[in-house]
């Protein structure tokens, strides 16, 4: 290598574009990473961060553009080739085998062998040596499932270092860590960078960017919208980049009834999540008739648990859920539906519909226990068909007849099937989660119009969305969920996207303010 | 009292236990290999049956039981590859595919009986069986009680003992064993480290086919001299139970198979010396009852591989 010439970046992308069918997940992205540098890729969910990383790691092939390592163009057909070139990835969902030991996990796929026999003693020595060199202490003989999540992540990092990774890519590394573990991780990463390892962290948390990285790239909707030195920017500017000031889909929202008595109220509700960690902490909120309360927040801040609680898939550990003045915390899901609670779930294909069932069957779900769809325990197929035809007409469900499997419909029409089913029961309260995820503009507009129609009819609506534009387009009031707590609440007319966006990312800015 | 002692302490009982457990041991090891790689295999019964038929047929044609054994191995391997293709490449539900394999094996062997021998029921006897090559290990066979039972055995019995040790070693020490375990616990982890899960699972199913072939050969050309339709008699399913009771570990599975062999041997012996006067059908039920008891008693203590029975699809694994 020439002494005079500038050292090429360790990793560089030039105009990388990745399309899936008609969807452009990454458009013309150029980033570079110098030796020993920590950069951050910042963006909301669905901004294209993970796609870009999967392109870098050889899981996807770029549709156009190129990747350069040490100034040389490379093309990876598989992760193995990326690993061979010195890339190491720490996945958000760990790629570790819980029943194997730390040593086994680290060497898996790259074991020192003689005639097929793993040299476990040598491997163990190597692991001990690595963990000492980088200060990543972990018992090499422990079974992985006995380790804390923080230590498991450490094993993931060691796995990359064992393969002599010069570039370490971490996808949402702090999502599952406790604050203490986050601190430890950061000091480990800083130490690695000082030793010459280059690091990319993918995140949507501003404070991590500010405290760890030297440069930051901001992605929005698959495009690079900004690049800054961390020392020359601040959280507000980054939040601005991240959320953007794009056109808000404008809809005539109509006036909310002033200070109505809430139809549904959560009173200091707390619940534990999957790992026993509190997912909701003393959450209180209420929605009145003819009102839409929009819950903004980054995914994973308690939205899923909130949905489960309200519809009756989970019981609160403490606190109450009050509906029409009655405590319904202990009521079953079915009873709640009968009492007038409707639900449009986020995962429409997984929990909203029974995909192999026909449109008419899906439309009848939940109301086929008695007349008019069912008589003496037998389904009345003629009534089912009539019900379907009427709703398909009313809700403009197109693309198939009532007898066709709902899986053949487009996303927009599938969502219309769910709306038709739920709305036709005339619920007093409706919970809508991510109603327009993956839909095209036309369908979005339709869904918005329908939701607003329902609201005009006096239904109380709780809207949960990770998309700020949606929250602003529909809500009368906006609340921000952060770390299972209500970080912010205000009428839509008295706040803006920047303010809400900042609370989404940083939680409560002033703890004493009410 | 003395009658029971006579049954349980006779060296013949231990000898019979080992012999009766041998096919179950092979098939249970087959189950271990398959399930540790993530493939639920209920087709051992069928693969074993096919192996038994071809061992007897090839052994009869050639007059050489060793070539017969080879025939059984090849048939077991080929039949199991069909299963691998169905489960790994075509992504068919493992239990459905396994059930079909079993039905296919029963139909196929019955059909082949007609084609090859022109009759149903039992095939022609092979002129020479593997029992002819019984090997008395010098010195070791002189150990009292144990010696005559364990060290004066036929070839496949020894091979089953060697297989247990070899597979235990494979899982504990080799790269293949580590890959198998990873493939059954967290296939995506293995795939992202650059090792093909499809390949590992094909290898596992193939190896299990060979083991089932050995089990079949034992039944038709070592323990007897001919093939009889349905001669596996549920051993493939008892092996499945042994796999669970043995905690998906070669040695554990061997002990569980021995237990089933012991129950079987004890009932045969009790029946033959007329120790207890019960209808013989009752005795025949013993091994199956033992299966239920053992599985019900032990199943909660062991944990299956996390990804067993779950389809793995590389293309769908992205996103």
Characterization of this structure:
The complex is a heterodimer of chains A (514) and B (319). Chain A is of the alpha/beta class and 514 residues long. Chain A is 32% helix and 25% strand. In chain A, strands 7-10-11-4-12-13 form a six-stranded mixed β-sheet, with helices on both faces. The mean pLDDT of chain A is 86. Chain B has a single domain, classed as ABC transporter involved in vitamin B12 uptake, BtuC, CATH 1.10.3470. Chain B has a two-stranded antiparallel ribbon. In chain B, helix 3 packs across helix 10 and helix 11 crosses helix 12 (250-272). Chain A binds chain B through residues 54, 59-60, 78-80, 83, 89, 91, 94-100, 104, 108-111, 113, 116-118, 120, and chain B through 173-176, 178-179, 181-182, 185-186, 188-195, 305-306, 318.
β-sheet strand percentage of chain B: under 5%
CATH structural class of the largest domain in chain A? Alpha Beta
Tell me the quaternary state: heterodimer
Mean pLDDT of chain B: 89
Shape by Cα distribution of chain B = globular
What's the CATH class of chain B, please?
Answer: Mainly Alpha
- CATH fold type of the largest domain in chain A: Rossmann fold
Major sheet of chain B: order of its strands? Answer: 1-2
Number of helices of chain B: 13
Gist?
The complex is a heterodimer of chains A (514) and B (319). Chain A has 514 residues and is an alpha/beta fold. Chain A is built from 17 helices and 25 strands.
